[in-house]
Amino acid sequence: MKIYGDKQSGNSYKLILVTSFLEIPYEWQNIDTKKGETRTDSFLQMNPNGKIPILILDDGRILSESNAILNFLAEGSDLIPNDSFERAKVFQWQFFEQYSHEPYIAVARYIRHYLGIPEERRAEYESKQMGGHKALQVMETQLEKTPYLVGDHLTTADISLFAYTHVAEEGGFDLSSYPKILDWIKRIQSLERFVPMKSF
């Protein structure tokens, strides 16, 4: 099994976390998005959408989209609830991550941390702040009620949201205003087989 990803990508980091938590063996194939490696003919044959991460199974089947891969890898584990309603809540948080969280926090992080907020992207960066804080407040509200996003144990919902939330300050988001999120981050970091983003 091979995972194609970029070490600076939160979406790729989700898969690093789940494979570590579940002790799933794989081969890492590094893709440098800054060098255009997702736009090569060979990569586009694997994923016409030209995005990472992608998973290639031993039999050659290919799966893209980080949360789809995450849930596939976690199938049958405690990271995906057996209860149909709780499972739907996991998916609810993952849709939230892709539509209401990642477009603001991950993009702001990219503009600030990797590009240094060039003047031509300053307005875009500033526009991401409001949406990012709204997403963080939604998470904070839930984490005031439960230790994890879907109840009292880790699920793939937490892995999905952890990836970019724990580095949100690199996008200019002050997490000190969100004490429950900070507690949640520490809770995940203290789990057995946790691996830091910077270490892979």
TrEMBL record:
The protein here is known as Glutathione S-transferase
- UniProt entry tagged with the keyword Transferase: yes
Q: What Gene3D superfamilies does the record tag this protein with?
A: 1.20.1050.10, Glutaredoxin
One MF term in the entry's GO annotations: transferase activity
Instruction: Supply the alphabetized keyword list.
Output: Transferase
Domain GST C-terminal: start-end pairs: 83-200
**All residue ranges annotated as the GST N-terminal domain in the record:** 1-81
